[in-house]
Amino acid sequence: MSSEVNQAHEAIEKMTPTAYISEHLQNLTSTGAHQASIVDFSVINLDTIFWASLMGLVAVFILLIAARRATPGVPGRFQCLVEMIVEMVDTQAKSIVHGDRTFIAPLALFVFFWIILLNTLDLIPVDWVLGVNQFIGNFGGHVPHNRLVPTTDLNATMGMSLSVLVLVFFYSFKVKGFGGFLHELISAPFGAKWYLAPFNLALNIIEYLAKGVSLGMRLFGNMYAGELVFLLIALLGSVWTFNLDLTLFGLVGHVIAGSAWAIFHILVILLQAFIFMMLTLVYIGQAHSHH
């Protein structure tokens, strides 16, 4: 086993910068192969499923703890923080969704917490993942790849986006009825004239497709770009040597630049979670409105 670990270390040290970045962006898949196209149902990214599920459970656990610790007296810091977020989400839901919000407001709250936790995984140093993989290898485990941040995987963000789109259709049918929804598809936005029905239908189909694609691509694009910046900063610090020395350049390039980007990236993490939550409310709110 020690010889295999040494071989793994040697392989890493021989990496080029391009191979180093590619190594960090590969998923642990069910088949060992990687996606040959954007849509490939034969490959399951196990690391994305694991971390997304784990962060979802953590989000539920945090909200349950906050609910159980809620007291009518003077609240603590944790309760104040959660109550501020709950009030913010509830206020946004009331102003956007005009209808029954029994399920919608808690959904928006969960989505907000969940995406924050998913995005926060990006703050874990990029080379810790490889280090953990090698540590597991010392005990007989085998984890060749482990992509830590699910929101840097297009499959995850598009899956979340499609889930929102399914909810939009569900509430459209629930609020307007099947006939009302179909009538809206062929009568909005240009009117109910029969000769305008094909144009209305085409525009509505394009609108729904644009909603689904843009919602997932926006979150993926921002988080993927942030991950690439972390990897480039790690290269500046020569973490895996690349025949360079960890001198003053490495300190400035890796530690200082990495810390500065991590602080800035916190804003990106929160902003992307807020945008996804707000667009979820907006799309569901549009499903409640009549044209």
Describe this structure in words.
The protein has 9 helices and no strands. The protein has 291 residues and is mostly helical. Helix 8 runs antiparallel to helix 9. About 2% of the residues have low confidence.
- Rg calculated over all Cα atoms: 23 Å
Give the helix/strand class. mainly alpha
Q: How many structural units, i.e. domains? A: 1
How much of the sequence lies in strands comes to: under 5%
Poorly predicted regions are: 240-245
β-strand number: 0
Q: Tell me the major beta sheet.
A: none
Instruction: Estimate the global geometry from the Cα principal axes.
Output: globular
What secondary-structure arrangement, pairings included, does this model have?
Blueprint lengths: L1 H12 L3 H8 L21 H24 L7 H20 L7 H17 L5 H12 L16 H34 L9 H40 L11 H41 L3
Helix pairs in contact: 2-8, 3-5, 4-5, 5-9, 7-8, 7-9, 8-9
Summarize the structure.
With 291 residues, the protein is mostly helical. It contains nine helices and no strands. α5 packs antiparallel against α9 and α8 runs antiparallel to α9.
List keywords for this structure.
single chain; 291 residues; mainly alpha; 9 helices; 0% strand
